[in-house]
Amino acid sequence: MSIKKMLSSALAIGTLLLAVGFAAPAQAQDAPKPEAAAAAAPAAEAPKADAPKAEAPAAAPAAAAAAPAAPAAPAAAAPAPVPNKGDTAWMLVCTAFVILMTLPGLGLFYGGLVRSKNMLSVLMQCFVIFSLIYVLWFVYGYSIAFTEGGAFFGGFDRLFLHGLTGDSTTGTFSKGVVIPELSFVAFQGAFAAITVALIIGSFAERVKFSAVIVFSILWFTFSYLPMAHMVWFWPGPDAFTDAAAGEKATAISGWLFQKGALDYAGGTVVHINAAVAGLVGSFVIGKRVGFGKEAFKPHSLTLTMVGASLLWFGWFGFNAGSGLEANGGAALAFVNTILATAAAVLSWSFGEWIGKGKPSMLGAASGAVAGLVAITPAAGFVGIAGAVVLGLIAGLLCLWGVTGLKKILGSDDALDVFGVHGVGGILGALLTGVFAAPSLGGTGIYDYVANAVAPDYSIGGQVWIQFQGVLTTLIVSGVVSFIAYKLVDIVIGLRVTEEEEREGLDISSHGESAYHS
Questions:
Q1: CA gap 35, 451 in Å, rounded
Q2: Which of 39, 267, 391, 437 is the most exposed place for a label (fewest CB within 10 A)?
Q3: Using one digit for the tens of pLDDT, what is the confidence trace for 227-282?
Q4: What letter does residue 440 receive in the DSSP assignment?
């Protein structure tokens, strides 16, 4: 059976499961950390009346009857919450960290892996995609992803960031706590930009620059934005005042949020989403000229190591910033990001050492990214030991993903986007359901109505919900990507000519070279 038929069958089976098995949304809602939810703002106390003097008569019925009762003082309205300067500064710094992941982190990581004649093409694609997506985020992206609309797609209230000023605020994951909404806009825009840029690694060295731009617009609009809305949109913790209000707030949230899917920083929205788009592209676009006959060696593992290090550094903003506050939840996500990544570097390196006889720099860098990907959905939900175990498994499984699985699929996923981001993202999303359990050191699921961690965490039930999130992402991204690639191919064509590919995209597409002798 051909790979295309296998993909078609998988999509058909997935769609059937989606229709049959996803009917009942989970009731519990998630929180990054139990102590992250502060109590609601206390009501103002009414002024106390002066106590009667001790020497006054105990009772004077006539006087008491004649004296009118003092009117009750009206309760003062609770003041509107004001952003904490520490939280605001933290969010702005984390946003800069995430931007660093794309520019220059991802560019250098990918650039070092391609042949020298294609170095600038990768840098150019990352640079322009980042700029393009941020502008689209301003025009319509933020509105569709993070405003109320339907379960799959948001509304248009924030087109061109309509109505937002420096004084506009939005909620975090704690009741009564807000941050400037513009800081949230900028933070989430950086997520959108790097997600689209991740895809280019699958079809590097053979695609028209114009095709990359048009595909990026289509995929961002019809895959990234719906997934971000389905997973992350909710009206905020302050909407959960009682059971009835909680049901109403849940009903207007994103589809996967309603089900109770846990995705702290983008295992489904970012990594699986982008990886599937890349894998589909590697099949639709086809293999590079000379694939399987010529050696396609990285031209600079030095740059790849630098890029991987910048990704690791920036990922602290990616994960630790996703709690939207500078608190203990951010510290947990920060430490988990260190340890899971370090564990994955070790397991990949030792696995390669045992299997091939030598550990490689490429393997260590790839292991780091595998660990970062796997911990992303789990960063604020799992305990420290769970993060280490998750990283160890991710290193070994993603090593298989770029070797054994890649051979099974038969694709020319040039920079192993699916083998690392797809495999690592799926692993992380599913095991979040396991290691988020309080019995295993996780934070559990926070009930914003009871203002406490829900006591009845079910590992099996949560893993099933996580699986639904994974399958939804596979179907949405797979279908949207396939249609988008076909449309672009019909209108402008996807591939450069064989002559241009052999010359290298630096010269043929951009008229310049990264290196001069």
A1: 10
A2: 39
A3: 999 999 999 999 999 999 999 999 999 999 999 999 999 999 999 999 999 999 99
A4: G
